[in-house]
Specification:
Sec-independent protein translocase protein TatB, about 70% helix, mainly alpha, about 150 residues, TatB
Length: about 150
């Protein structure tokens, strides 16, 4: 980089004072300071971008190694699973198991709406299972007529 010491800075300031003049020197100094600040921010942004890209490359390399390890584990699990399945089929073929009974449909009326309380419980405890209209209830519980 450029090595600027106190003596060189004083020489630059004296030349600027002579060339620019004392009236315009403060305004020029502010402008130069603002431009230097923008340049420093730009350099800092470039450094940050370079660091981010380097970190991204490292993360990509790490991701690739993890994916390779995962593929290796998956392949080893698949090979061991196929070996296990082969030994399992050999063992189950050797032991003659009785066959399960065939599926029998329950013959349920799927569209019939049912309550949560079973019918046998209702019958045992005397719970009404059918609703009666008011006229049917009166007719049912009316005392018999004497003829």
């Amino acid at each position: 980089m450029i090595d600027l010491g106190i003596s060189k800075m004083a020489l630059i300031g004296a030349v600027a004072l002579i060339v620019i003049g004392p009236e315009k020197l403060p305004r020029v100094a502010r402008t130069v300071g603002a431009l230097l600040g923008k340049a420093q921010r730009y350099v800092a942004d470039v450094k940050a971008e370079v660091n981010r890209s380097m970190d991204l490359e490292e993360l990509k390399k790490m991701r690739d190694t993890v994916e390779d390890a995962a593929r290796n584990v998956e392949n080893s699990i698949q090979t061991s699973a196929s070996d296990f399945e082969k030994s399992w089929t050999d063992a189950t073929d050797a032991a003659l198991e009785p066959e399960a009974p065939a599926y029998k449909h329950p013959n349920k009326k799927w569209r019939l709406k049912q309550g949560a309380m079973p019918h046998w419980y209702k019958a045992r405890n005397g719970v009404r299972t059918r609703a009666l209209s008011g006229a049917a209830r009166v007719a049912r519980f009316r005392p018999p007529r004497a003829h």
